[in-house]
Write a structure and sequence with these properties.
Length: 266
């Protein structure tokens, strides 16, 4: 047997035959990831609290049995259990889990006036949900030797005033990612993506959809020359979910067009 493997064609559909669950997958970055899974040949199960947005996805995609929506409150254990069980009943396996759901608005005002209930709501939706979904899907993922991708944020590393709850959630997601990678390996790989500026105005449900308003200055802040798109995050998620990333686990991937690497003096 040759020590160096031969050159073989790259699979055109790296997720063919695989089933991926995406929380918060009916709008925004989650929808971008769900669509990327479909393009890569996989089947996708979207868990989202917005039923209108979920059914709009199915209508838009017209993907037949390759796409499924389950109304899910990721902060509630029973709802998460129904989400995972519904996927297993429909497809018989789970190869990937994308923990994307979170409260999108990072601003909660001054910490002195931040209510405990609001703090807990952010943590339940964006961090505890990662634990709940992972725990529920772990056995199926182990059996499939699957992968988890958690969606964090560059706000895990830098902040604006009044964003304590959001920063705590995303920082927790980064830390939970490497903890899970160690605990679930070698059967399950776990990585996270930290997006930067990714406008999602055009990726909402039809009634809320609009073209994002962006300026040349917005683009110029990024060494890549533009802001991000949900498709950018989806492309990396597909790679991390696929066998091509078989030696990648416990890692955080910052996808922000280089914005956080640029020195600023203004």
């Amino acid at each position: 047997m040759a020590l160096v493997p031969p050159v073989e064609p790259h699979p055109a559909q790296p997720l063919a035959g695989r089933v991926v669950l995406v929380t918060g997958g009916a709008q925004g970055i989650g929808r971008g990831i769900a669509q990327a899974v479909l393009r890569a040949g996989g089947a996708v199960v979207v868990g989202d609290s917005d039923e209108d947005a979920g059914h709009a996805c199915l209508d838009d995609w017209d993907a037949g049995a390759a796409a499924m929506f389950v109304r899910t409150d990721v902060a509630k254990e029973a709802s998460v259990r129904r989400f995972v069980d519904s996927a297993l009943k429909a497809y018989g396996r789970i190869d990937g889990l994308v923990n994307n759901a979170a409260i999108a608005d990072p601003g909660t005002g001054p910490v002195e006036t931040l209510a405990l209930a609001e703090w807990n709501r952010h943590l339940a939706t964006g961090l505890t949900s990662v634990f709940l979904c992972t725990r529920q899907a772990a056995a199926a993922l182990r059996e499939a030797r699957g992968a988890i991708v958690n969606i964090a944020s560059t706000r895990a590393h830098q902040s604006e005033p009044g964003t304590e709850a959001y920063a705590a959630v995303k920082g927790g997601v980064v830390a939970l990612t490497h903890a899970l990678a160690v605990s679930l390996g070698p059967d399950v790989r776990v990585n996270c993506i930290s997006p930067g500026w990714v406008p999602t105005d055009a990726w909402r449900k039809p009634a809320s959809r609009r073209r994002p308003t962006l300026s040349r200055k917005d683009a110029a802040q990024h060494p890549a020359g533009r802001v991000g798109t949900p498709e950018d995050i989806g492309a990396l998620a597909v790679h991390l979910l696929s066998p091509a990333a078989g030696f990648t686990t416990g890692a955080e991937f910052v996808v922000d067009g280089g914005m956080s690497r640029r020195m600023r003096y203004d």
